[in-house]
Amino acid sequence: MQYVSTRGGPPVSGIEAVCRGISRAGGLYVPESPPEPLSLTSLKGMPFQEVMAAFYHRFLPDLPLVSWEAVVRDAFRSLEGMDQVPRLPLTRLNDYLDRYFLINADQMPTGSLADLTHAVFSKLWPLLPKTEHTRLVMALLPEDSLVSLAGGETDLLKILFLSTGGARGGELAGRVSGREQVRLFEEGFDARYREFARLAAEPSFEEKLSRRGFAPLFMGPGHLLEVLTAGALATAVAASIAEFSGEEKVLDFAVAKDHLSFVAGLVYASILQIPLGTVYVGESEPASLMPLFRTGKSAQPVKRKRPGITGMDFPVNLERLFYEVTGRDGEKTGHLCQQAANPGEQLLSEDEIQLLNQSIVVGSCDYKYCLRLIRTVYDQTDYLVGRDTADAIACWAKHADQKADSAVCYVQERSPLLDAAVCARALFGKEAGRMEAIRMVSEETDVPLWPSLAKISEDSQGADWPVLTGSIEEAVYQLLNSQDAGR
Description:
This protein has helices at 14-20, 40-43, 48-59, 65-80, 114-124, 143-149, 169-175, 189-200, 203-211, 224-245, 260-271, 290-295, 318-325, 330-339, 350-356, 367-381, 387-399, 420-428, 434-445, 451-454, 472-485; strands at 2-5, 12-13, 29-31, 90-94, 97-104, 134-140, 157-163, 180-185, 214-219, 251-256, 276-284, 360-365, 407-412. The protein is of the alpha/beta class and 487 residues long. Helix 3 crosses helix 10. The two termini are 41 Å apart.
């Protein structure tokens, strides 16, 4: 099983794709050809860990199936605790809504499905081939993923790049280990990611690291293991729902815009011929994704109405979709990703727009409707959803055929406590400070506090981490120089 970059270049093994992250051309890794399909019928009744292991093994057969079964089993045990029985993070909303399901991150150690990806990474890493160079992890990720990644079981040297606009610095400060360094950046995430991708494609940078005894792992949104974990989870969900319902219904998904890695995972599940239907992608207004899907143009710049939210205007995983709709043209895909920074730029042709919209529907949701929807879902199901999930449900509610026989699974990738201020407004009709809102919402809904969140207070801040004044490359050299000086 070989992988190619969305921006061209020679194929590599799946293991190399996992260990490199971003390709040497600056792109994301995708399968060169589809693997053998999986039969949903054969998966029904299997333990969900075995279903996920079978999925991973299809895409990364470098490791035997028995190794993947151990990786998945141990990853879930690390999430649940050794005294707990691992379980699939899936719930049916209630007995009267038997076609409605929710993938829920409420019980994860840091309130995010990123915990599952990093648990799998931690258990997989010791099984990967060793090199003579020390692995250096450079992570430019949304803050949920950084909090999840920090303090992991692997003893890797890491430099974590965090946006100053986030709200989880206090949690991150309590989780970082001595082998992890944090650097802040004040610019938008999109601009820094483009710099990050260019650095991954710079041969001289890798050569300099190699001379110092390091091999880079560029960990950004849409790392191959993140996408495969989403696909494995979706496949296990499909098998579980098919077993529950007694039939193999088409399964739709509703996903938030900032979680397009999950959409990429659904594409990979479809490649294995798992019967998935339409994917509904929701975003807040003002929309940044809808213009692209409707007109093929990049969005005009807008002022964010949600303080503290640092999601991407141009989700990185769109690159995988661009690669497919352009006929796997790496050069054109790279050009599109650069042009996306220009507001109102015509990126796609009419034919490419049609391909982009196949099986994917994008919709936006305004703030007031979102508040009503959060309250309605809670009143009808006793499950609390956050703002991002409400956006996704709103898209599904507006565009789906409610009379169709398909089931739907809403994907809540992050605990609603991470959007507690909005949830408190929806439930109680009033504003509240962050920690007060978290307390109120948790007590009302029984959504659990995880340890790193429970420890922080209203005035908790991140540590006094250095702010980038230059390039990411310079920050990496400074870190390595300080490591050398400390030896």
